[in-house]
Write a sequence for this structure.
């Protein structure tokens, strides 16, 4: 490994260590949402659409698993709402992949959660 790669690797580790869980969630959500938006621009590119939808489903499955944990510190009502959104996302994603629905509702949900995460992060 050359010096530049070692420097990038060391900086990346430090950068990751200073991030909060919310900022990591926000970054992931933002990245997934960008992929969904790009896929929405070309709904005829099915491999791109399927990949973006799959990545979104994986993220929401992880969120659902996290909020279903009894030790999760979020308020119970918020946990229930997030779990419901994960279920909706799963059902709607199937419809998108079948060509029965558009992707906009999923993007809208992600954007709403992203705004909430960023607002909460700014309050800290």
């Amino acid at each position: 490994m050359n010096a530049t790669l070692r420097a990038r690797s060391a900086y990346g580790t430090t950068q990751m260590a200073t991030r909060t869980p919310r900022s990591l969630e926000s970054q992931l959500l933002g990245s997934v949402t960008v992929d969904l938006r790009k896929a929405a621009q070309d709904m005829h590119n099915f491999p791109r659409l399927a990949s973006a939808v799959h990545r979104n489903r994986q993220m929401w499955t992880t969120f659902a698993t996290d909020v279903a944990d009894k030790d999760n510190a979020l308020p119970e009502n918020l946990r229930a709402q997030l779990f419901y959104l994960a279920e909706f996302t799963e059902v709607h994603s199937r419809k998108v992949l079948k060509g029965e629905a558009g992707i906009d509702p999923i993007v809208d949900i992600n954007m709403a959660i992203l705004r909430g995460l960023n607002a909460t992060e700014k309050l800290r």
User: Anything to note?
Assistant: The chain has five helices and no strands. Helices lie at 3-17, 21-41, 46-68, 76-98, 104-123.
